[in-house]
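Supplementary Methods. Inverse-folding protocol.

Structures were first reduced to a discrete structure-token string of length 300. This string, shown here, constituted the complete conditioning input.
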């Protein structure tokens, strides 16, 4: 567009206006065809350059916002992991302290009766619980060090399952109409961690006790198949609805009014770390059976 001695050309790129190029001269000038085409090409290049500069600035702002968001997300994730770890530790410690309190009450009663043999038996159980607690603390220390190496060992599955049953009897005894049965048979050694395995079985028994509420039967059994050995906890309680069954091993998922939703998630993660499998059989009104399978330890 010519106006007096000025030629105005808008800088437009991809539909956006970035400015106006003004060509000034002492007198009105009409550019010949080639020069007019060159001027238009320069205008187009200037518009594209302005558009690229604006895009670069926008990209820089977006990158800065993304970096800030990533830092916030990283801090949030660290806090989430810390909360998950704290809740998991609290869950384990609670499962340890409850049997200790109950066993101390049993010990007091047996001392009052003067039954020395029974007192020694209760003290032995308390010592086993304390050892289990030390192992839990060691797991917490290992977690804080971010040690990715899993220290597996040859584990007597039947012996650990028997110990977990004994640790759980005092809690189950608070519900007189719930029966805790053992169908534990000798099985080959497996590769796992005895302390984590005991915690897992205690957690499964605790969950079964809560599912039964006031009446029912819990059976802890062992067996071997497919090159491995397993321990399972089964109850004849109400079972799980399909939507609960699908999510039961998810972290933070729980159907309880109080609870972290980490118990079964931790059991599942533990079994997976040691190359095992978790099997779940349940249906509404047909009880629940959870089986932990581990590969048999190879001869050394």
């Amino acid at each position: 567009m010519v106006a007096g001695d000025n030629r105005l050309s808008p800088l437009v790129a991809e539909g956006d206006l970035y400015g106006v190029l003004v060509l000034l001269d002492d007198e009105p000038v009409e550019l010949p065809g080639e020069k007019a085409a060159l001027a238009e090409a320069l205008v187009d290049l200037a518009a594209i350059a302005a558009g690229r500069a604006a895009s670069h600035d926008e990209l820089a702002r977006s990158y800065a916002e993304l970096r800030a968001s990533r830092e916030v997300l990283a801090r949030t994730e660290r806090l989430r992991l810390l909360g998950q770890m704290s809740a998991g530790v609290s869950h384990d410690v609670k499962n340890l302290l409850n049997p200790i309190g109950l066993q101390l009450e049993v010990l007091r009663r047996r001392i009052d009766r003067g039954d020395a043999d029974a007192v020694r038996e209760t003290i032995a159980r308390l010592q086993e619980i304390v050892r289990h607690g030390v192992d839990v603390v060691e797991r917490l220390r290992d977690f804080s060090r971010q040690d990715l190496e899993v220290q597996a060992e040859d584990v007597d599955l039947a012996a650990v399952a028997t110990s977990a049953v004994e640790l759980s009897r005092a809690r189950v005894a608070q519900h007189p109409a719930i029966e805790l049965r053992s169908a534990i048979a000798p099985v080959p050694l497996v590769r796992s961690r005895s302390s984590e395995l005991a915690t897992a079985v205690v957690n499964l028994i605790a969950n079964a006790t809560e599912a039964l509420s006031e009446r029912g039967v819990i059976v802890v059994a062992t067996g071997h198949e497919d090159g491995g050995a397993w321990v399972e906890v089964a109850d004849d309680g109400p079972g799980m609805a399909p939507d609960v069954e699908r999510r039961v091993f998810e972290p933070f998922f729980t159907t309880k009014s109080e609870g972290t939703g980490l118990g079964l998630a931790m059991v599942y993660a533990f079994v997976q770390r040691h190359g095992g499998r978790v099997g779940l059989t349940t249906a509404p009104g047909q009880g629940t059976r959870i089986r932990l399978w581990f590969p048999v330890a190879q001869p050394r």
